[in-house]
Amino acid sequence: MKKKVRDTAIFFTILYWLLIFIFVLHKRVTEIKNLKLSVLLLIFVGYIVFLLLSKVLVPVFDLVLAITKKIGSLIFSFISSIVFYLILTPIALFMRLRGKVFLDYKIDKNVDSYYNDYQESDDIKK
Predict the structure, then answer these.
(1) In this structure, are residues 16 and 50 in contact, taking their beta carbons and an 8 Å threshold?
(2) SS3 call for 114
């Protein structure tokens, strides 16, 4: 369980600092110079609270992991479908129109095996 608490603390620390970074980028450079000490203290206290609550935030971390896993599988399915239908299918149709057959589909029940031995006369570069 300690590893999960540590992973949760690391995740929320990165998330917290990312939010602070976005907040600082949102402000103009002139406004950053006028940042009050109270805002910096609030940022520091929030960071400490996140570290102390890392045991409580483990279920939230598990939920985030489950959601990102589902999103990742959806993205993989989408990209795989795009590759198959937009790249591989047109290539297969083009090769079929040209008469190229990659597999021998004829089934002969009299043959024990379809294994073909290497012939020295065959060109290995083909």
Answers:
(1) yes
(2) coil
